[in-house]
């Protein structure tokens, strides 16, 4: 699926789409999905539980990678995937924007999981968890509870409750002891910096994300917050220890590459970048300003065009204030793109532009000062200069 429009490109999708294939039996002791034949040997001896980390590929919805849990015991080889969703559900994009999207957990054969990532050129890294048999039993119970009809659907949140944080949380709950992570003092990115890195090859997607993310996205993140990205979780798990009764043991017993990275094709975005569009607008504004200076006329249609774009984008940003996404509630882009522009269009058409000019100048000054707190989208300083040129009587 190709997402080219600004609104859809701005939607922060962090998991890969796979058609849900549910396991025929839920993973709990009652229905025997994981129960081995009775013997003197603990059936959990043969169980291997792993965290699977899939590297990103170049579809918009998979730029952030993916994570899942693998339960392998003899012929039973299941993947527990919290990243199941469907674009066909009513108002999916709108609900995602407002933070009202529901995702769900599905369990299905591992053989149905890995070929999808292989065909897209993504790698799959498996980290075998160093769990005791009792911890495996606890994890078995938790997976079964999560897979029940009333529990498997959950309210998805891009940064705080997604396909990476859900496996982490259920693994931590299963451990009898404390998981001690190695703090990464040299790695303290903001949410915006991490999202930008994932979208580095998709400038319009990065632009859209930057437009919707507000001041809170520029705050330093904690180790736990950084684990919304599966690749960060994989790194943290690799260096984590389990502490109990004065003793430590590594969280990961073995790490192996299940699927090697393949060739990925980076498809061309729109033929002009956001910066090139901004420069084009500036050139037009300068040319119109020179024409107005020489002819002593005002080109009202250009003001109306700019104000229309300001107002329409401003409506989207205003709506995001009410979204459940915590990083969109305070967005200084509203100073540059504000719905009030639509209100002043009739006055500008009538030649009464003084009040709008003063208001626009104040918003541009505040926008410039706001750059101390918020990092703006590519090309936005050029757009601000373009609007500043129009601040004349």
Automatic annotation (TrEMBL):
Residues 1-23 form the signal peptide. The chain crosses the membrane at residues 270-292, 304-324, 330-348. This is Membrane protein. It holds the Pfam family 5TMH_Lnb. Residues 268-391 form the Lnb-like transmembrane domain. Keywords: Membrane, Signal, Transmembrane, Transmembrane helix. Coiled coil: none annotated. It comes from Xylanibacter ruminicola (Prevotella ruminicola). It comes from the Bacteria.
């Amino acid at each position: 699926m190709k997402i080219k429009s600004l609104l859809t490109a701005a939607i922060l999708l962090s998991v890969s789409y796979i058609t849900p294939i549910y396991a025929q039996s839920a993973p709990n002791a009652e229905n025997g999905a994981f129960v081995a034949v009775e013997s003197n040997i603990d059936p959990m001896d043969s169980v291997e539980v792993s965290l699977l980390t899939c590297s990103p590929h170049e579809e918009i919805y998979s730029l952030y990678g993916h994570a899942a849990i693998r339960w392998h015991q003899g012929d039973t080889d299941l993947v527990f995937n919290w990243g199941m969703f469907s674009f066909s559900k009513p108002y999916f994009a709108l609900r995602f924007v407002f933070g009202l999207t529901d995702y769900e957990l599905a369990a299905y054969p591992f053989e149905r999981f890995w070929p999808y990532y292989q065909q897209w050129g993504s790698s799959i890294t498996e980290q075998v968890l160093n769990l005791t048999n009792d911890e495996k039993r606890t994890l078995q119970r938790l997976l079964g509870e999560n897979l029940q009809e009333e529990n498997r659907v959950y309210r998805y949140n891009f940064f705080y409750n997604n396909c990476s944080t859900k496996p982490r949380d259920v693994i931590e709950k299963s451990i009898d002891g404390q998981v001690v992570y190695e703090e990464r003092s040299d790695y303290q990115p903001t949410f915006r910096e991490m999202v930008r890195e994932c979208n580095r090859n998709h400038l319009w997607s990065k632009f859209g994300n930057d437009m919707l993310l507000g001041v809170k996205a520029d705050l330093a993140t904690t180790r736990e917050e950084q684990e919304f990205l599966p690749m960060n979780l994989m790194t943290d798990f690799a260096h984590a220890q389990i502490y109990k009764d004065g003793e430590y043991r590594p969280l990961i017993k073995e790490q192996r590459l299940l699927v090697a990275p393949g060739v990925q094709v980076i498809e061309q975005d729109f033929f002009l970048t956001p910066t090139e569009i901004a420069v084009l607008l500036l050139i037009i504004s300068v040319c119109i300003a020179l024409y107005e200076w020489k002819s002593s006329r005002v080109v009202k249609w250009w003001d109306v065009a700019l104000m229309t774009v300001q107002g329409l984008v401003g409506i989207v940003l205003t709506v995001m204030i009410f979204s459940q996404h915590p990083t969109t509630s305070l967005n200084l882009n509203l100073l540059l793109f504000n719905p009030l522009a639509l209100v002043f269009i009739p006055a500008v058409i009538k030649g009464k532009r003084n009040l709008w000019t003063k208001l626009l100048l104040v918003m541009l000054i505040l926008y410039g000062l706001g750059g101390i707190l918020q990092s703006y989208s590519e090309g936005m300083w050029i757009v601000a200069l373009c609007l500043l040129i129009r601040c004349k009587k």
